[in-house]
Amino acid sequence: MAGLVAARELARQGLAVTVLEATDAFGGCVARHEVAGLMLDAGAESFATRSPIVAELAAELGLGERIAAPNPVGAWLQLPESAQPMPSTGILGIPADPAAPDIVKAIGRRASLRAAADKVLPLGTLLRKEQLSLGELVRARMGSAVLDRLVAPVAAGVYSADPDALDVDSVVPGLRAAVTKHGSLAAAVGALRQAAPAGSAVAGIAGGIGLLVERLVQDLKDRGVKLVAGAPVTGLERADGGWQVRSAAGDFDAAGLVVATDGGSAVRLLAASIPGLAAAEPAPGPAVALVTLVVDMPELDAAPRGTGLLVAPGVVGVRAKALTHATAKWPWLAAEAGPGNHVLRLSYGRAVGAGDGAEREDFTAWPDDKLYGQALADASVLLGLPIGADDVLGRKVVRWVGALPSATLGHRARVAEVRRLASGQHGLQLAGAWLAGTGLVAVIGDARQRARLLAEDLGAGTRPEEHSAAADTP
Ligand SMILES: Cc1cc2nc3c(=O)[nH]c(=O)nc-3n(C[C@H](O)[C@H](O)[C@H](O)COP(=O)(O)OP(=O)(O)OC[C@H]3O[C@@H](n4cnc5c(N)ncnc54)[C@H](O)[C@@H]3O)c2cc1C
Fold first, then answer.
1. Domain limit, last residue, from 143, 160, 193
2. How far apart are CA 200 and CA 8, in angstroms?
3. Is 323's C-beta closer than 6 angstroms to any atom of ligand 1?
4. Assigned domain for 82 exists
5. Residue 267: CB within 6 Å of ligand 1?
6. Could you say which of 355, 372, 400 is where a domain stops?
7. pLDDT category of residue 356 using cuts at 50, 70 and 90
8. Worst-scoring range by mean pLDDT, 262-271, 276-285, 327-336, 440-449?
């Protein structure tokens, strides 16, 4: 997405653009696939509405009418002893009000009292630590029940990581400063939530988020951008003030580059040209296996677990970290699937613990049949009704290896260092989730900005008719 968005921005600035993509398909983590005759998202399936940036892009691509809100019933939380509707927490599972009845139900009265101590505990030196993990902050302020039962399931769902390994400044920029300003974690979370727009925190696109890629690719073609798939870039070298790009599809000369791969690939490609960059190579991110099942089960019409569940660590017998009941979440999909038919998406793979003792669950090496068996067993437990192979109309496994960037401790400092090193390079910009942060809002906003910086660097002018569209993005 970063590469496609950057290409579009550069073309809008009047530059001749070529996109080189390693795989056979454009879009990376944003992709659709067909299961039981339905076109479904195989990667990202929603976008955050905290910024208008994705909706604006969708509208520019003619998808404005298709932007869809999810079913407001909300998701559930699977705790070791029971399932309950997900409490309305503030940010990444951290409650703004630890005494709210749904929080008390999830963590118990004693833990709720402990969490409320956050309001009176002195801040001490914790917030001045150079590296602070999400887990450390939440445990210190609100106690381990909030961490294990509320924050860990959400962190696993979004980052496939343990909160103790996540860099708080990477995953919730501004939280540290807000705690200092407001005096407690709960007040900080409340203030950040209040600043967010009202309404649902996410939205989708009827037909799938993958439509964004299909429309973007068409838009790029219309703008004369050359799109080359199956062309992994294997080398980048300085040449005549610009760059020579070696790829499986041949060599290219470029005045400027936006390198929009994953972090490991970007660093390896540029290390020879940028002294010091090799030391900033990020560790590979988590590997995730997604199992999609399309089932004929009218019993699921009632959406027994809302739009799906996040699974807390320690739930015996369930290996999935999350289940999305996609037909319950997206009314447009329910209409397409037809009565009694349901789409379930189970995700596998998370890290438990941090540092040397961390255990990384990786299911991507499991064969498809084993994953299907596990998915049927997990879906039966999580949804509270037996789902057998006979109920399945279609199924598919997707493995995302190295697609999610790491947001582990020290990541923000690494990003700053990479940005610093790259800023001295004429005709070069780096984009993508490893630098911008996970999620379409962060990736798209950053890619647009990086492309504009490159266009400026190359002396391309902003076209007057494009100016207003360009000016209203953050
Ligand atoms: C399963 C899953 C679900 C997600 N769900 C959501 C969601 O619901 N909402 C949300 O906002 N975000 C979601 N995300 C995150 C979001 O999809 C990503 O943050 C975003 O799409 C990343 O875009 P990107 O362009 O940075 O990277 P990528 O999508 O990883 O693209 C990088 C591209 O670079 C290519 N490449 C790599 N090396 C080379 C090379 N040497 N030469 C040429 N090309 C190369 C790759 O093939 C790939 O196409 C999800 C991610 C995953 C994996």
1. 193
2. 29
3. no
4. no
5. no
6. 400
7. low
8. 276-285
Overall average pLDDT of the 379-389 stretch: 96
φ/ψ bin of 172: left (φ > 0), alpha (ψ from -120 to 50), beta (otherwise) = beta
Tokens matching residue 471: 């000016």
Tell me which of 143 and 462 has the higher pLDDT.
143
Instruction: Write down the pLDDT at residue 461.
Output: 63
Q: What is the pLDDT of residues 59-118, one digit of tens each?
A: 999 999 999 999 999 999 999 999 999 888 789 999 999 999 999 999 999 999 999 999
Residue 75 covered by a domain = no
| Radius of gyration, CA atoms only, the chain | 23
Same domain, 276 and 293: no
Q: Where do the DSSP E strands lie in 222-330?
A: 226-228, 233-239, 242-247, 250-254, 257-259, 288-296, 308-311, 322-325
Evaluate: CB of 7 within 6 angstroms of ligand 1.
Answer: no
Does ligand 1 come within 6 angstroms of the Cβ of 29? yes
Take atom 4 of ligand 1 and give the residue whose Cα is closest: 44
Which one, of 348, 370, 343, lies nearest residue 360 by Cα? 348
Note down the domain range covering 34: 2-68+203-281+409-471
User: In the predicted model, is pLDDT for residue 323 greater than 60?
Assistant: yes
Q: pLDDT tens digits, residue range 116-145? A: 999 999 998 999 998 999 999 999 999 999
Q: How far is the CA of 227 from the centre of ligand 1 (A)?
A: 17
Tell me which residue of 451, 474, 469, 468 sits closest to 14, measured CA to CA. Answer: 451
Q: What is the mean pLDDT of residues 377-396?
A: 97
Q: Say if ligand 1 is within 6 A of residue 366 CB.
A: no
Residue matched to tokens 């709210």: 100
Which CATH number belongs to the domain containing residue 309 in this structure? 3.90.660.20
